[in-house]
Amino acid sequence: MSPFRVERLRSISEIEAGRSEWQALLRQDPTHSIYQSPAMYLTWLRLRRPNAVPAVLFVRQDGRLAGLAPMILRKIRVRGISIRSVEFCVPRGGIIAPQGRADILRQVLAYWRGHSKEWDLIGLHHLPTDSGVAEETMRVAAESPEFRVRDGGTGPPESVLAVERSWEDHFREESQKFRKTYFHNERTVQAMEGFGFDVIAEPEGVERSLEALASLESLSWKVERGTRLSDPDRELFRALMMDDSGELSYQTSILRAKGNPVAGLLCLRHDDRMYAFLTYYDHRYEKASFGSWLMLRLVKQCFEDPGLRELSFVGGFKAGKRWTDAERTYRHLRLYSNAPKSRLLHALEKFEFWRSEIERDA
């Protein structure tokens, strides 16, 4: 086997220069996701990790890009202790390796083992378990006696729906009760006064989309439960919706009654996957199931689009479970070195208060 060579990209300009290679490699990886894209990395770095230092590792073999680790270096503080953390920039944004994932993992971990003076902790958070990535990472890390591996447990699941077959075949397999509910819901929505349905997807429609969603949020149950979208989250979605790299596209669906928005849904698309990130409905119309009607429209659209393979409901929430039992689960791993401070941090892992604070900062 030809030897590998690891390149470290330390600046935005270097990342931009390697962006096309990054995108091409990501498209080849069967486990690819929006969270591993350059667009998401750069947006997250700018808005969520402004004090972090880029540390993207390109793993080459015979000059060809064979793997990539979209990582950063940043300082975190837990219980007064300053910690230098190497981690993936974006949650769920793990290593990209179309082939030979174990070999790429070994190269990435060997690189950081050789640069152990730069870090106290390697946080490998949100590794998918369904594709075996988490288990393989744990096995490869355990090969080196210089690493102390800590299993940080599982993170929130992601409901996913495969949409590669026809809508008719999928709908035919739904229960009779579900189909009856669907037709009733369809008649209810179509019969309501001032019915209107808009899909906004053009760049100049971003602010109009966000305004409509914000107005719905103010009328939703999320206000009462204190789960409104934070200002940083709103800015993040605005930036992703306005991304002009061609990697992402957005779609906002708005259902109207009497001229006013009563339900809204924001999706982002990356390659052959659609992500339903935000959904809102006016809680005064809860019995009309307007949110379910919008989700149905999205599911049907995804089945009818030959370029799509999967619809992600992002979280494991009720709207997703209505359509699929399939979930993608995630596991957190933390690696420590033999350096004194790193050994101390590893020893602190036995305390629940420490583990919870480390995971909260991930």
Layout of secondary structure:
Layout lengths: L3 E6 L2 H6 L1 H10 L9 H10 L5 E9 L2 E15 L2 E8 L12 H14 L6 E8 L4 H10 L5 E15 L4 H6 L3 H16 L4 E5 L5 H12 L3 H4 L6 H11 L6 E10 L2 E11 L2 E9 L8 H15 L5 E3 L5 H4 L5 E10 L3 H9 L3 H9 L2
Helix pairs in contact: 3-10, 4-5, 7-11
Give a short overview:
38% of the residues lie in helices and 30% in strands. Helix 3 runs antiparallel to helix 10, helix 4 crosses helix 5 and helix 7 crosses helix 11.
Which terms would index this structure?
362 residues, 12-stranded mixed beta sheet, elongated, alpha+beta
Task: Give a description of the structure.
The protein is α+β, with helices and mostly antiparallel strands. The two termini are 36 Å apart. It has a 12-stranded mixed β-sheet with strand order 1-2-3-4-5-12-6-11-10-9-8-7, sandwiched between helices. The chain is built from 14 helices and 12 strands. β4, α4 (101-114) and β5 form a beta-alpha-beta unit.
What would the principal axes of the Cα set say about the shape? elongated
In the predicted model, the low-confidence regions spanning at least 5 consecutive residues are none
Query: Helix and strand string, N-terminal first?
Result: EHHHEEEHEHEHHEHHHEEEHEHEHH
Q: What is the CA-based Rg, rounded?
A: 22 Å
Q: How much helical structure, as a percent, in the residues?
A: 25-40%
Strand proportion, as a percent range, falls in 25-35%
Major beta-sheet overview: 12 strands, mixed
Provide the residue-averaged pLDDT. Answer: 90
Task: Report the total helices.
Answer: 14
In whole angstroms, the N-to-C terminal distance is 36 Å
Class derived from helix and strand content: alpha+beta
